[in-house]
UniProtKB/TrEMBL annotation:
InterPro entries: NTF2-like_dom_sf, SnoaL-like
Pfam family, one: SnoaL_3
Domain SnoaL-like: 70-151
Protein name (record): SnoaL-like domain-containing protein
Length: 173
């Protein structure tokens, strides 16, 4: 358990530590740098810099905005990313687990804040990602992401801070 009370999984294979480090460096630290330092300027380029993190033909996404099936992520990306590009981001409890030298999954709480379409926002959510090493160029890219908020089942409202305690949010009455 770390200082935040986060318990790492037992599924880490020491032989795959290099792959996990590559995913951290290329995808997660790369994405943080892009989002916090490049995305606002990249808006004028159609968010081309963000495209390097995704395998568009293989990408599946289930996020706060709905389900995006394989083959339709480009349309989703082009409508969502420019709208949400004016923000900052940080990660909490990031854990990357390589299952082979070419595939890895990750879990975390992602905190994002800024403005979207001119409206201020500050939100946190669970992010689960699956990445693969591209056979074409050897770079790690996401092929699946799931973003979600906890929901208070009684009020049927999402908790945009990801702080709802599971023991309090599951009851319908």
């Amino acid at each position: 358990m770390d200082v935040n009370g986060f318990v790492r999984s037992d599924y880490h294979n020491p032989d795959l530590a290099t792959a996990e480090q590559e995913v951290l460096d290329e995808l997660y630290l790369g994405w943080l740098h892009y989002w916090n330092h490049e995305s606002r300027e990249d808006f004028h380029n159609g968010m081309k810099g963000a495209r390097r993190f995704y395998d568009f033909p293989e990408m599946l996404s289930y996020d706060m905005f709905g389900n995006t099936i394989r083959g339709s992520f480009k349309e989703h990306f082009e409508s969502i990313f420019p709208y949400w590009n004016d923000g900052q981001m940080e990660f909490k409890d990031l854990e990357i687990t390589a299952v082979s030298r070419n595939f890895a999954y990750s879990t975390m709480i992602q905190h994002t804040w800024g403005t979207a379409g001119g409206t201020a926002f500050d939100t946190a959510f669970r992010r689960t990602g699956i990445a693969h090493r591209s056979p074409q160029d050897g770079k790690w890219r996401w092929i699946h992401e799931h973003l979600s908020f906890p929901v208070d089942m009684k009020t049927q409202k999402g908790d945009f801070t990801a702080s709802l305690e599971p023991s309090k949010g599951f009851k319908l009455q």
